Amino acid sequence: MTVQTPVQTQPQSAPRPEPAVRTEERPWGRFERFTLNEPSTVKIIHVEPGQRLSLQRHRDRDELWVALDPGAVFEVAGRRILPEVGERVLVRAGDAHRLGSDGPAVRVMEIAFGRFDEDDIERLEDAYGRA
């Protein structure tokens, strides 16, 4: 597990509080609740072996990333994180970030908080010619 340091953010009006992930125990095991009755968008991102998304940022949303497979690489605000399965990282609006694979195909759950619009992506670097 990589030691996390607080994420530096660009100034914005009123930053959203960090999402409170709640764990609830049941006789059969437990579950983690990531959102409760709030606007959010949930995606499972599939990254092919050795590939990575563009280095990008968003103006209007925070994202919570959860590594679902070993081999994921998170780049957030200049930090490179090699998360363990289940590890969570918060990406604040305005932070430069990207996901990638350190070899195998990986999946990452992304929960976006705030106004979700794929058109608000500002690509800073991109291996596919989209920047």
Describe this entry's structure for a reader:
This protein has 131 residues and is mostly beta strands. Helices cover 0% and strands 44% of the residues. The chain has no helices and 11 strands. The strands form 4 sheets. It has a 4-stranded antiparallel sheet, with no helix packed on it. A hairpin with a 2-residue loop joins strand 6 (72-76) and strand 7 (79-81). The protein is globular and about 50 Å long. The N and C termini lie far apart (32 Å).
- C-alpha geometry: globular
Radius of gyration: 15 Å
- What fraction of the residues are assigned to beta strands by DSSP? 35-45%
Helix content: under 10%
Secondary-structure element pattern, one letter each? EEEEEEEEEEE
Strand order of the largest sheet: 3-10-5-8
Tally the beta strands: 11
